[in-house]
Structure formats: structure tokens, C-alpha cells
Write a structure and sequence with these properties.
Blueprint (H helix, E strand, L loop, with lengths): L5 E2 L9 H7 L9 H18 L5 E6 L2 H12 L5 E6 L2 H12 L3 E6 L8 H8 L6 E5 L1 E2 L4 E2 L2 H10 L3 E5 L11 H4 L3 E5 L10 E6 L1 H8 L12 H12 L11 H17 L1 H21 L16 E5 L6 H11 L1 E2 L1 E2 L9 E5 L6 H17 L8 H8 L2
Parallel strand pairs: 1-12, 3-4, 3-5, 5-8, 8-9
Antiparallel strand pairs: 2-10, 6-7, 9-10, 11-14, 13-14
Helix pairs in contact: 1-10, 2-9, 2-10, 5-6, 10-11, 11-14, 12-13, 13-14
């Protein structure tokens, strides 16, 4: 009998068995020929998944927060102006990272469940010379989806670099980096990329790399500096050994396997599958009377959902009952509504059965608290909308 629980949080996520097998392979040297091939192949595959054929990938041991840190510490200099477009918790995090490196930070904060209007963004970018703007593609605290292309189009008018936090989006939401003209797209391995936690992943445009090369002051970050990591990426892509910091060899081997799976499926097909599952899941949840944190369908993420508890439901007991059923969901993260909602991840290598099991667990937990609805209705709605 299977005795492990189904992990359906917004990261870490369920991973493909072949990825887990790669994690369990015998650990090799970071300069062994087979590992050099894995690392170089992973770099080349990232360009395909990011749809950035001319971008510079970076694969560094760390979390998505390190990727956020690297993006701005390498591009910003003290006194530069930076704009944060915030749709939740991780916009606030970017404000703090930017301030650490001496930027003059302005935050455009959306109300909970909403996005910042393009008019406000253009008005702010036109008001002074901004070096860069950060965008959270999907904020994991609210499940709100932004439109990076429209923001990038505005930023280009004012020669402002764009940094897209794709931690809860990349490989699950549509992001043709080069076509959209986004300068940095970053993520962590544990989200839609489908690898256990531990890798900071980012692809940097030619324009942004030129800005970095022409900076007047040294990068105020040792571990995350492109100065230290670019030679490593170039060496491994050329299938040469190199060293700065020991790479997590098993994680990078797992990354190669997962990127191969995504590339074989086709990134466009993978993204479309996320869209189909997410739309059906949202309809299923709403069919039994639950409400989403995003206020409009068009700004609801396709990699995760943030869902308000119905009135009278004890959230702690609800999640406990879900867990006892065999599924793990996440509680709230946004400080203002933390106890009022829960979060479900539906990204990466998930399938219909995973979502059906999750809906079944939600119905089970609601029924235990005598919530009024028709059993099986959410599952039927989900299947009808695939």
C-alpha cells in the first residue's frame, strides 16, 4: 500500500520518478566527463525552455531567492532607481533585496487579489530614470497572475531593464523571454521545473549582460556575482571542467532529466496543459461555492490557486483533515489574510488523477465540518471541463 502523501502545495512539488532516480544516482565528481555533459546540456536546454536562444543561463546552488538576489545585485549600482510591481508577499521581498544593494526603491502595490494597472506603471516609469523594474509573474501568496509582456513593452519605451520573478511560473505559464524582450527570467528548481529544491535558475538577456559588463562599481555580492559564475557556465557549455563553488551534482543531473522531459513534450504543450487543468480546477472549486483570492478569472494563476475558506470553516482543522486523507495543501502566506485562505499547487508533472484526488480531499474536509454542498460535484465539474 502507498503510504506517502500527495504533495499539492505551490512548491516543492511532486516530481517525475525519472527525476527522483537521477537524484539517487551514484554521486560523481563535478569535473567528471559525464557530469560536465549533464551540466552543459542543462544550460542548452534552459535556453529552449525559456525560449531565449541568445540568453545566458545560470545554474547555481541555492533557492529562488538567490536567483532574485543575483538578478538585481549584478545589474544595480548604489543610487539607481528601481521599481517594484507588487501583487503580494514576494513583491515586498524584492523591495527588501533592492534596498540591500542601495537602490532607490519605489513600490506600486496592488490591492489583494488584483494587479497594478498598466497606466500606473507607465506613469511611474515616465516620472524619472529607472534602471530596472521587477515583476512577479505569479505571486505565490495570492495566486495572482500578471502580464509580463505588457509591462516589458512599457519598460522598453523608457530603456528600463525588466526582471521577471518566475519562481511560481516558469515552465508553467507562457513566457517567451526573448520575444517579449524580458531581460531576466528567474526561478527555483522546486516549482514547475519539476526538480527537488536547491537550484537557483535564471536566464539573462544580451542587453542585461552588457549592462553588467559596463557597470562602474564592483558587484556587491561575492557568491552571486556573474563575475564568478559566467566563466563556469561558459566552460561547462564548452564541455570543459571548471571550478568556483562545488555544484550540486545530483541536483543538476536531475535538472537535466526534467528539462529533457519538458523539452520532449514541448514547452508550448506543457504550458497549455497547465492552462487546461487550472481552468477546470477553478471551475470545480467555484462549483461547490469556494472563492478564489484573485478577483478576476484572467488574473488567476495556472500553476497554483489561492482559495478562501468558506464562512464557518476552521482552516486548521480543514488542513489537518486534508492531510489525514493523504494530501498536503498549504495554508495562507499573505499577512493580511493569512488565516482566511489556503493554497493548492497544480504545476509540473501533475496529472488528472492528482487533481481529482486533491478535489476529493477538499470535499472530504469540507463535509467533515458540515459544509453544505453536493458530494462529488467538484470532481464531476473538473472532468467535464477538460
Amino acid at each position: 500500500m502507498k503510504n506517502r502523501k500527495l504533495l499539492m502545495i505551490p512548491g516543492p512539488i511532486e516530481v517525475d520518478p525519472s527525476v527522483l532516480r537521477a537524484m539517487g544516482e551514484v554521486t560523481t565528481s563535478h569535473v567528471a566527463p559525464n557530469f560536465i555533459e549533464s551540466f552543459g546540456n542543462s544550460i542548452e536546454l534552459m535556453r529552449k525552455i525559456w525560449l531565449a536562444p541568445n540568453g545566458q543561463p545560470f545554474i547555481v546552488a541555492g533557492s529562488g531567492t538567490l536567483a532574485m538576489d543575483m538578478a538585481v545585485s549584478n545589474l544595480l549600482e548604489p543610487g539607481d532607481n528601481a521599481l517594484v510591481i507588487s501583487t503580494g508577499y514576494f513583491g515586498e521581498r524584492y523591495k527588501n533585496i533592492l534596498a540591500t544593494y542601495g537602490a532607490n526603491v519605489t513600490v506600486l502595490q496592488a490591492e489583494i487579489g488584483e494587479i497594478v494597472s498598466l497606466n500606473k506603471i507607465e506613469e511611474e516609469l515616465s516620472s524619472k530614470n529607472y534602471k530596472l523594474v521587477t515583476i512577479t509573474h505569479v505571486d505565490t501568496s495570492t495566486g495572482v497572475l500578471t502580464d509580463p509582456k505588457s509591462v516589458a513593452d512599457i519598460a522598453k519605451k523608457y530603456n528600463t531593464l525588466t526582471v521577471l520573478d518566475g519562481v511560481c511560473a516558469t515552465a508553467g505559464e507562457r513566457t517567451p523571454q526573448e520575444t517579449w524582450g524580458i531581460d531576466v527570467v528567474l526561478t527555483g528548481s522546486q516549482k514547475a521545473i519539476g526538480v527537488p529544491p536547491g537550484l537557483a535558475l535564471l536566464v539573462v538577456s544580451e542587453k542585461a549582460m552588457t549592462v553588467w559588463k559596463n557597470r562602474k562599481t564592483p558587484v556587491q555580492n561575492y557568491y552571486g556575482s556573474f563575475t564568478n559564475w559566467l566563466p563556469i557556465m561558459e566552460a561547462y557549455e564548452e564541455r570543459r571542467p571548471s571550478y568556483f563553488g562545488t555544484p550540486p551534482v545530483n541536483l543538476i543531473r536531475a535538472l537535466e532529466v526534467s528539462l529533457n522531459l519538458i523539452n520532449t513534450e514541448g514547452i508550448e504543450h506543457r504550458v497549455e496543459s497547465h492552462l487546461i487543468y487550472a481552468k477546470a480546477f477553478r471551475k470545480a472549486i467555484q462549483k461547490i461555492g469556494l472563492q478564489l483570492v484573485p478577483k478576476r478569472e484572467e488574473i488567476a494563476a495556472n500553476t497554483m490557486s489561492a482559495i478562501f475558506y468558506p464562512e464557518g470553516i476552521d482552516g486548521n482543522q480543514f488542513r489537518k483533515d486534508i492531510s489525514e486523507y493523504g494530501v498536503i495543501l498549504a495554508g495562507g502566506l499573505h499577512s493580511e489574510i493569512k488565516t482566511q485562505y489556503f493554497r493548492v499547487g497544480h504545476m509540473g508533472a501533475i496529472n488528472k488523477s492528482d487533481i481529482v484526488a486533491t478535489l476529493s480531499a477538499i470535499e472530504f474536509a469540507l463535509a467533515k465540518q458540515n459544509y453544505s454542498f453536493t458530494l462529488g460535484e467538484s470532481i464531476g465539474t473538473f472532468l467535464e471541463n477538460l
